[in-house]
Fold:
Amino acid sequence: MEQEATPHVQGITLLRDQLLPKLLKEDEESILYWAGKELARSYDFSSVEDILQTMEEVSFGTVEMVEKKRSSYRFHLFGSVVTSRLNGNKNATFDLETGFLAQAVQQVSQVYSEGTYRLIKKGSRIEILIQTDRKESLTE
Structure:
């Protein structure tokens, strides 16, 4: 179920794309990435499907897993929230979402995970790549 650009989402977008860049300046990307990881720690994820549902519920957009390999996951983030943010701000960042997704995958896989993203202009999609390091297991 894709989120519409409700006043709630518009308010979040205003904060994300107008206020935070001014406050955080050159540290915006790294702070938002680690903030996303911290936010994800407040959830108990049991599966990738659980992660995808939660990301939609918190108005990050619609997320689909497009590829899973031994040491990586590839996701697409899209929908009205993403399109609206990209249309309103050509410099919109998706580090918060990437950090959130990286930490959530880490919780489910129990191995250290980091993420990066890139814009796919066709279709207004964000591709998020989560790399996992099986040598850095979080279980004992």
The chain is about 45% helix and 25% strand. The chain has a mean pLDDT of 88.
